[in-house]
Amino acid sequence: MFCRNCGQKIEDDAKFCPICGSKQEEEGFSAPDRKESCRSVYDSSSDGYAFLCFLFPIIGLLLFLVWKDMYPLRARSCGKGAIAGVITAIVVSILWSLIVFLARGFKT
Description:
59% of the residues lie in helices and 0% in strands. The chain is mainly alpha-helical. The chain folds into 2 domains: 1-42, no CATH class; 44-107.
């Protein structure tokens, strides 16, 4: 059976969930009935997704928009990675433009 509060698998005769401590009803059920609880169990911030979104900010934006309601912590990681990637790309392109401009200026 599954916990009514957090959705974790528990013993069939458990009165309380060993994970979250919530009291269980006498009758069990075969699947978690609270989607929010199940989603929160699988939602966590992810450095891997943040790095992927840093490298590909468009993917980060899309993942943020898709996951913002279902997996808010993971979506936040993607959003932060995408923002960091865009800012880094802008700074690097400005620095590169300055370097090229200055290099051309010293040639003439």
